[in-house]
Amino acid sequence: MAPAPILDSIVDTIEPRKETLPLPEPARQRLLKAGIDLSKGYPYRPSVPLYLQDVYKIRDEERLYQDAGARADKSKKNLFSAATKVTDLTTHIGTEIEGLQLKDLTPQQRDELALLIAERSVVFFRNQDLTPQQQKELGEWFGEVEVHPQTPQVPGVPGVTVIWPDLFTLERPADFRRPGGASNWHSDLVHERQPAGITHLHNDTVPPTGGDTLWASGYSAYEKLSPEFRKIIDGKYAVYRSAHPYLDRQDPNAGPKYIERTHPLVRVHPATGWKALWVNRSMTVRIVGLDKAESDVILNYLYDVYEKNVDIQVRFKWTPGTSALWDNRSVIS
């Protein structure tokens, strides 16, 4: 049995205080229109896992996977011909599509959207009339929808996670030095056997000022490297750790530990065949086979390539009812 201070610390980390806030009206109206049951409170809080061994078992098997973008028409004629406007927001990353509703996409358009996301890394759709159920159904077209073991969820729609900064601030007070949440460069689920592909974030409520999100292209970060430097990192593996720590059931007195997995430092996207640098400062621990000093020098340089080259980044200002879909295999955010 872990001593009380350690156990209290880990529980506070993975199971925050369950305070409630009044729902913003745009969110309430969207949820009620979708038939979401709010009678038991919002959001739904799952019973979070406490032990490392239990989390390792989540989706801990190889799964056959065909990327939807790999079967798409390369011209994307079905998607582009139905849109009223398609705008590339920067040279390297980010595209906004107007005149389409995600809920109405045909199978061909969905595949072509997956390819566009793979190529442009992040794609935006404003003014979306989209229920959480429809959001999940679109996700199931792209692959297996992740049901997060410990984050708040839309009641009755497992796999649709709730992002609510005001609620998170109640649970873990933030300031400008420690903004909390997803304010640091990261990629989703790097600790899993098969890390995340496409993430779909829909914002029904946004602040009048602030709240912008940045993405950076892993393709372009890789291209920034010299050919000789690429030879150094091609084929190398790195260790990536989970965002949350857990207790080791075999040694709870040792305190919180992170899930760790090994993945390629440079990934090849299955739909494009393009190479992407796959590191982030928050979750990449070390390069396999190198001394710590060597690994630290290389990783810190690679982080800087991602974070300091603004030409490979896109900054997006949200408006209510906007969806962003991005590919965690080729981008950090």
Automatic annotation (TrEMBL):
Keywords assigned by UniProt, alphabetized: Dioxygenase, Iron, Metal-binding, Oxidoreductase
Entry keyword annotation includes Cell membrane: no
Presence of the UniProt keyword Hydrolase in the record: no
Gene Ontology molecular function: any one: 2-oxoglutarate-dependent dioxygenase activity
TauD/TfdA-like domain residues: 86-331
Cofactor: Fe(2+)
GO cellular component: cytoplasm
InterPro entries the UniProt entry points to: AtsK-like, TauD-like_sf, TauD/TfdA-like
Family classification: Belongs to the TfdA dioxygenase family.
Protein name from the UniProt record: TauD/TfdA-like domain-containing protein
Species annotation: Neurospora hispaniola
